[in-house]
Amino acid sequence: MSNSLSTAHTMSALRRLTNRFDAAGDQINDFAHRQAQGENPDPAEFMKLLEQRSVTGQAMQAQFKLREKPLKTVLNETR
Questions:
Q1: Is the pLDDT of residue 73 over 80?
Q2: pLDDT higher for 52 or 1?
Q3: DSSP one-letter string for the chain
Q4: Mean pLDDT throughout 20-28?
Q5: Quick one: which of 21, 34, 35 has its CA closest to 63?
Q6: pLDDT for 26-39, tens place per residue?
Q7: Between the N and C ends of the chain, which has fewer C-beta atoms within 10 Å?
Q8: Predicted TM-score of the model (pTM)
Q9: Integer angstrom CA distances of residue 62 from 42, 44, 54, 58
Q10: What do you get for the CA distance between the two ends of the chain, in Å?
Q11: Rounded CA gap, 72 and 8, in Å?
Q12: Residue from 6, 22, 7 nearest 56 by CA
């Protein structure tokens, strides 16, 4: 895979993961809002949302590290 195609794929994956991360954050905020309004949302729902956000954050870090490693290799080889 060419470098520019690899970069485009990585950026696309990060964009999708960012959207998921933000959506989970929005759902967490909605949960908190409903709770503040006196509703009794299911605590298991909140835990699921936190887990989704955490896993998505870890996936984002992994994608970034995959992209970062080749850059470190290139920088070390040019020294």
A1: no
A2: 52
A3: --HHHHHHHHHHHHHHHHHHHHHHHHHHHHHHHHHHTT----HHHHHHHHHHHHHHHHHHHHHHHHHHHHHHHHHHHT-
A4: 97
A5: 21
A6: 999 999 999 999 99
A7: C
A8: 0.75
A9: 31, 27, 12, 6
A10: 26
A11: 19
A12: 22
Q: Report the distance separating Cα 35 and Cα 59, nearest Å.
A: 29
Give how far Cα 5 sits from Cα of 9, 18, 35, 69, 73, Å: 6, 20, 45, 16, 19
Q: Are 49 and 24 in contact (CB under 8 A)?
A: yes
Instruction: Work out the burial of residue 60: count CB atoms within 10 Å of its CB; fewer than 13 is exposed, 13-18 middle, 19 or more buried.
Output: middle
**Mean pLDDT score across all residues of the chain:** 87
| pLDDT at residue number 54 | 97
C-alpha–C-alpha distance, residues 60 and 16, integer Å: 9
Q: Which of 60, 49, 43, 54 is nearest to 24 (CA)?
A: 49
Q: How many CA atoms lie within 13 A of 6 on its CB side?
A: 11
